[in-house]
Design goal:
The protein folds into 5 domains: 46 residues, no CATH class; 122 residues; 73 residues; 73 residues; 97 residues, no CATH class. 65% of the residues lie in helices and 5% in strands. The chain contains 21 helices and 5 strands. The strands form 2 sheets. A 3-stranded antiparallel sheet has the order 3-4-5. Strands 1-2 form a two-stranded antiparallel sheet. It starts with a helix and ends with a helix.
């Protein structure tokens, strides 16, 4: 009912405005310029035909502009899909990161000149989203972005030179080739005033920001150290402490996206699926959310909602060529023994992405495994690490030797996770655990298939769960050790 009322009120308002226009046409006489002299004519009232013609004409003009703006939106959507658009913007932002004011000046002058010379502001407007995005990424506000683009276009129209002789003919009675010096003079003055306004506005803001940045610098360093420590704690399965520190970081950081993503990850690993969803739901911008899609996908995997998990991962990859989303999709294919499909995705990963160190780590492992399963030659720098050797050719004896590291405490190497309780026969457990592995206790986290088993007091420090890592699509165990939490217990029990 409210929406209908709003639409009705808008129509009434438009009707009133049009009615006033019709009435004034009977009162105010028309006029025109001739050789810089204004001549007043007679009134030109809107007749019965004009009452119906004018709205139709307005709608036609609106449709034209709508098509143009939709076309511009479609253009940017296509460019964003390819990933080239974001790379170009990032490169320009990086180039002008220390020359922000120069970019504003170039932007204002360029838009003003294009509008002044072409007389086609709608065409020039196609560049506004591109330049505005750069200005915003450089750290300026929306007002600055608007003034430096749309404002510059308006200045170019007011200071029209060769682009639109009709504008100047109506204002000054000049032809296109007459008074060009004055035209450019007016344009220069208007551009200068706009530049002074934009720079002056941001100078005052810059001083305030400098004070803020000085205050934040110490916090930023603490935040960086805190994030590194949290990630280390997560890797060591110390989730309670990781959660506590993350909540402390939340108090003074502006990067809430990473905070919510980290909290979602921690809650997931602790088995608090509902809480994990809640933390991730706080990231409400779909384009920003792609950073958390991989974590949310793992939540759905814990709930055995495999189709939803794949949908999220595909979104994350399609929006921003997220390499980790593609890696997750590949690993799901490996679990299902869909090696050809995994290989096709691996080619995309290789061709379209620049690998960071961590991403390359996953890529190499996947490549080594697929080399062993497919009659294809995937060039990869061979590693002699335990993980890579097992992926290339599984060795049961080597696996058991590796697992025995968790029998004895290592006071010097804290990354050895946990150790088995003294009464646990590790070799017996190793030989019998494969019979306990099924889809109900499977939970994907990386290239290896991971299973979580409930075994009371399996760990020396009272751990009641056992994590088992296997070669993808098999029950060949490569790792096995006690843990405190089961991420799937509260979902599937």
């Amino acid at each position: 009912m409210k929406k209908e009322k709003k639409s009705f009120d808008l129509l009434i308002a438009l009707g009133i405005v049009f009615g006033i226009y019709v009435i004034l046409s009977y009162i105010i006489p028309v006029g025109y310029y001739n050789s810089s002299t204004f001549s007043s004519g007679e009134t030109d009232p809107v007749g019965l035909v004009g009452i119906f013609k004018a709205p139709l004409y307005s709608v036609a003009i609106f449709v034209q502009y709508l098509v143009v703006f939709l076309s511009i939106g479609g253009l940017y959507a296509v460019m964003s899909k390819t990933g080239v658009y974001s790379k170009v913007i990032d490169s320009i932002v990086k180039k002008f990161s220390k020359k922000k004011t120069l970019f504003l000046i170039i932007s204002i002058i360029s838009f003003a000149l294009l509008a002044s010379l072409s007389g086609l502001p709608i065409v020039v407007f196609a560049l506004v989203p591109f330049v505005s995005a750069i200005i915003l990424l450089l750290g300026y506000d929306k007002v600055t972005a608007l003034a430096s683009t749309v404002g510059a276009i308006l200045v170019g129209i007011m200071g029209s030179t060769y682009g639109n002789a009709l504008v100047f003919k109506s204002f000054f009675g000049l032809d296109a080739n007459k008074g060009i010096v004055y035209k450019f003079g007016l344009l220069a003055v208007l551009v200068f005033l706009l530049i002074m306004f934009v720079i002056g506005k941001n100078k005052s803001l810059t001083k305030k920001e400098e004070i803020k940045e000085t205050k934040k610098s110490k916090k930023t360093k603490k935040e960086e150290i805190g994030v590194m420590y949290v990630n280390k704690l997560i890797a060591m399965n110390e989730y309670e402490l990781a959660k506590k520190i993350t909540l402390e970081l939340k108090k003074y950081t502006n990067n809430k996206i990473d905070i919510y993503t980290t909290l979602g990850k921690i809650e997931l690993y602790m088995g608090n699926i509902k809480e994990a969803k809640y933390q991730l739901s706080k990231i409400d911008n779909i384009y920003i959310r792609n950073t958390s899609f991989t974590v949310l996908a793992r939540v759905y995997l814990a709930e055995k909602e495999y189709d939803k998990a794949k949908e999220l991962l595909n979104k994350a990859y399609n929006y921003s060529n997220n390499p980790y989303a593609l890696i997750n999709l590949i690993n799901m294919d490996l679990h299902e023994r869909k090696y050809e499909e995994a290989y096709e995705k691996l080619l995309k990963l290789k061709q379209n992405l620049i690998f960071n160190k961590d991403c390359k780590y996953h890529y190499d492992a996947i490549s080594i495994f697929l080399n062993s399963k497919l009659d294809k030659k995937i060039n990869v720098k061979q590693s002699i690490g335990y993980r890579e050797r097992q992926l290339e050719e599984y060795d049961k004896t080597c696996a058991l030797t590796h697992i025995f590291r968790h029998v004895y405490q290592d006071i010097y190497n804290k990354n050895i996770h946990t150790v088995f309780a003294n009464n646990i026969d590790v070799e017996y457990l190793f030989n019998n655990v494969p019979n306990m592995l099924n889809e109900d206790n499977y939970f994907y986290t990386n290239i290896f298939d991971e299973y979580y088993l409930n075994i009371d007091n399996v760990g020396l420090n009272g751990e009641n769960y056992l994590i088992v890592g296997c070669i993808p699509g098999t029950k060949d165990i490569v790792s096995m050790y006690p843990i405190k939490y089961n991420p799937i217990k509260k979902v599937r029990s």
